[in-house]
Design goal:
Elements: H1 2-8, H2 28-34, H3 39-43, H4 60-70, H5 76-79
Length: 81
């Protein structure tokens, strides 16, 4: 998909795998850059998947457990508007 998009100049039509509620906010940069969270922690080993699938449940409890384990803020306002 990436090579074809580069060759044709057309944007990639991504298929959404993870859906979060509209009232929650997720920023990849904060997790990857500041939190040093590896992609595989949430997305699994995508390079071995024939078809990308959701690996983690992404429930609020799962997120809070990760925040607490990593020493990140678990203040509601961090993720919810």
């Amino acid at each position: 998909k990436i090579y074809k998009a580069m060759e044709t100049g057309k944007p990639i039509e991504w298929i959404r795998v993870h859906n979060l509620p509209d009232h929650s906010y997720f920023n990849h940069a904060q997790h990857v850059n500041a939190g040093k969270v590896q992609c595989e922690s949430c997305h699994g080993d995508v390079k071995t998947m024939d078809r990308i699938k959701q690996v983690q449940q992404l429930s609020m409890g799962w997120c809070i457990d990760c925040h607490r384990t990593q020493g990140a803020s678990d203040d509601c306002a961090v993720c919810h508007y």
